[in-house]
Amino acid sequence: MTGNELFSRIDRQLSDTQPNTDIEKRWPTAIKLLYLHDATMALWEKYMEAFFSDEVIIDFPDDVTEATLGNDLPFSDRYASNVMHYVIGRCIAEDSQDANNQALAVMHYTQSGLES
Asked: For the chain, which end, N or C, has fewer CB atoms within 10 Å of the first or last residue's CB respectively?
């Protein structure tokens, strides 16, 4: 799965599917990249097997950048859902002063399986 495919799924879940410009989106690509980095590091710590390739561990994951969003992500597609829920939870947590958003953020963060 590429970063662009993951971000499209995240945008659909967040109902943040305005035209493909960061100016009109609630959560711009730069913010989601920061959260993707955090999710990747949490995944590395908790599920190192996500980075295995034919029983050989891949090097420590490089950061995904806007320039590399079209490339495959550094972890197995099997863990894309974990990462997606982590990023969604972090995005929604930005609006957590609202009790409903706080509960929704906790739900996504818990579903990610990457909580500390």
From this structure: C
Q: What percent of the chain has pLDDT over 90?
A: 44
Helix (H, G, I), strand (E, B) or coil at 53: strand
Nearest Cα to Cα of residue 43 among 83, 101, 5 = 83
Cα distance between residue 68 and residue 32, in whole Å: 14
pTM of the model: 0.84
- Selection from 37, 39, 33 nearest residue 69 by Cα: 33
| Rounded-to-integer distance, Cα 8 and Cα 62, Å | 21
CA angle 32, 47, 81 (to 5 degrees): 45
**Residue 71 has which token pair?**
């490339």
**Cα(68)–Cα(110) distance, integer angstroms:** 28
